[in-house]
Write a structure and sequence with these properties.
The structure is a single chain. This protein has 598 residues and is α+β, with helices and mostly antiparallel strands. Helix 4 packs parallel to helix 5. It is globular, with a radius of gyration of 25 Å. Bound molecules: alpha-D-glucopyranuronic acid. The site of alpha-D-glucopyranuronic acid has 10 residues, from loops.
Length: 598
């Protein structure tokens, strides 16, 4: 074990020295921080000319009459941060290359503080410079990262310069091909975090999976200081304790209390505060247990059926990435209105506002890293990139009690390298967070002898099996839906993680009930048949129609009905409820009645 620890430390040290972003401290919103959001000066740089001798990051300005600086920021050229750049200028609609951003700010330095620039997410490759110095690079479009700037800050004229490139890359995660819009840019909040010299970098406060009155976890400092007193307060549980750090700077949390558990019906959260010396953090924590028992999923020890919906991080009416708390409320309120107790956030980690809105409103969450379809598993860097993204999202959301499933992949094809990578990811997720379930969405179900059989070697390594199937849309029904038999030799719960079909809202163009008319009635028929089949699958413990709302995708360019949109939404691109919305809502209302009777 020692050699593994040393190896990972060395790897981290080398990556850090090479200028790779630090995995961010958790809970930026509960800390002493200010948002750097707003209009940032920008330079569109399609050929990355700004990297070479033009050296945009040096932020040079012409001084003398003959002094020539070709690329320099000007105040008139700005874009909103947070926000994808594709939706902000017509010339950027399908843009896939670099944009340079610059944010100027002042700060009164304080010798007792440390300063960090924290990015909620930037898609896809990000190079960060501060006052002319390169801080480093981050790869990945959906997880947070930070850089320390304590020793570089000035009182005035600080220049934070960021190069963002959203080009798709063969060995990226996701890879070249994916069925959603490639929104590039600084797509989530940017914060200046101020901490004391010693601060709490990480913590976990959750329920002991085996004792519903036992709160366990830890609080970890940014340095290996022993003997430090950390205060933990949860007033509504009469908790006001001091815990002491060990020689790793970590203090164990173990507290017995009578706790109201978090449930979708009563999503009870408790205000919590952590502090060391005079550095403090606030959070809202819920307590629940989530386990599997044979083919059942148990929430707080009771079987639960997941009434879900798939959600992309997009506001269709605005044709932009969702990024704010208001956006999160729109998406989560739609899911609540549908009758959901669960949401699958596809196919990448969503912003923290959405996870927290779901937690406040009683929605369990499936979180997923974008190991999506055509990943170049043969590339030696891919596994490390996927593991880093998994670590980043588990570190960020491990205190969100409503997150019940970490998903390591969507629709990847079996191969030696793919199997090896996914098995490693499943084990890594379990190691990082034994308190939650691990899943993946598979679409390689084999159909023979009139039976659908779950057959994928990786299914052995997940707790819950997600299946994406499009019977009635991409494939015909093999037989009458209620007669389709599903076989699983895994003795695990299955979630139908995707199903559905495309329709154009209020499609009067061709009332014929046929797929090629993108007819609403055709899709209602698909859903009714799917529901008939669901009732015959004994190990089915959840369903997730694909998808909440029509969403933008550059692989959906059929010129009559799609026009750049995937039309499988239960809602149109204007938020109108299609007929299929009412079909799913009626099904969920019926399921809720069954629970109420029990
Ligand atoms: C796949 C995939 C989705 C995609 C959907 C579709 O299952 O997971 O990302 O959008 O099918 O074809 O619409």
């Amino acid at each position: 074990m020692k050699s593994k620890g040393l190896l990972s430390f060395l790897l981290f040290f080398i990556l850090f020295q090479l200028g790779y972003a630090q995995t961010s401290m958790i809970n930026v919103y509960g800390r002493n921080s200010e948002q750097l959001n707003g209009r940032w000066e920008t330079i569109i740089d399609p050929f990355d000319a700004g990297i070479g001798w033009r050296a945009v990051y040096k932020d040079a300005k012409p001084t003398g009459k003959n002094d020539f600086v070709e690329y320099s920021f000007i105040e008139e050229n700005t874009l909103n941060v947070p926000g994808d750049y594709n939706s902000q200028l017509p010339e950027l609609t399908y843009y896939e290359s670099s944009v340079w951003y610059k944010k100027k700010f002042s700060h009164v330095p304080d010798k007792n503080e440390r300063l960090f620039i924290h990015f909620g997410a930037v898609n896809y490759i990000t190079d960060v410079y501060f006052n002319g110095k390169k801080l480093g690079r981050h790869e990945g479009g959906f997880t947070p990262f930070q850089f320390e700037i304590t020793d570089l800050i000035k009182e005035n004229g600080n220049a934070l310069i960021v190069r963002v490139n959203n080009s798709r890359v063969k060995n990226g995660i996701p890879g070249f091909g994916f069925d959603w819009f490639n929104y590039g840019g600084i797509t989530r909040d940017v914060h200046l975090i101020k901490t004391k010299k010693v601060f709490i970098e990480d913590y976990k406060i959750q329920l002991d999976p085996d004792d519903k009155s036992h709160i366990i976890g830890y609080a970890k400092l940014n340095s290996e200081l022993a003997g430090q007193k950390i205060s933990i307060k949860i007033p509504e549980l009469k908790i006001d304790e001091k815990i002491t750090t060990n020689d790793k700077g970590s203090a164990a949390i173990s507290l017995k209390r009578k706790i109201q558990l978090w449930t979708p019906e009563q999503p009870r959260l408790y205000n919590a505060g952590l502090s060391v010396e005079n550095d403090s953090i606030n959070d809202r924590i819920g307590f629940r247990t989530i386990k599997v028992d044979g083919t059942q999923i148990l929430l707080n020890g009771k079987p639960v059926f997941l009434r879900g919906v798939n959600i992309h991080e997009e506001i269709p009416q605005r044709k932009t990435r969702a990024y704010s708390d208001a956006d999160a409320q729109v998406l989560i309120n739609w899911a609540k209105e549908l009758g959901c107790n669960f949401v699958r956030l596809v196919h990448y980690p969503h912003n923290e506002y959405t996870i927290k809105q779901a937690e406040e409103k009683g929605l369990m969450v499936w979180e997923e890293i974008p190991v999506y379809q055509g990943i170049d598993f043969a590339d030696s860097t891919v596994k490390n990139k996927a593991e880093l993204m998994l670590r980043e999202v588990i570190k960020r959301d491990k205190n969100r009690c409503n997150v019940i499933l970490w998903s390591i992949a969507n629709e990847t094809s079996p191969s030696k390298e793919r199997d090896k990578t996914l098995v490693a990811l499943a084990k890594e997720a379990k190691l990082l967070d034994p308190s939650r379930l691990v899943t993946a969405a598979f679409n390689n179900v084999s159909y023979h002898d009139y039976k659908m059989e779950l057959k994928d070697s990786v299914m052995k390594y997940v707790d819950v099996i997600g299946i994406n199937e499009y019977m009635g849309w991409y494939t015909d029904w093999p037989k009458d839906p209620e007669k389709v038999e599903w076989i699983s030799n895994f003795n695990k719960p299955m979630i139908m993680s995707e199903f559905g079909g495309e329709s154009v809202y209020n499609n009067k163009i061709d009332t014929a009930v046929k797929a090629s008319a993108w007819s609403e009635d055709y899709v209602v028929n698909i859903y009714n048949n799917q529901i008939k089949m669901f009732k015959k699958i004994p190990f089915l413990q959840g369903v997730c129609p694909w998808v909440l709302a029509d969403f933008r995708s550059p692989v959906r360019m059929q010129s009559t009905y799609q026009k750049g949109w995937n039309r499988k939404g239960l809602l149109s691109d204007q938020g109108d409820k299609k007929k299929s919305w009412y079909t799913m809502k009626a099904y969920y209302d019926q399921l809720k009645k069954v629970i109420e009777i029990q």
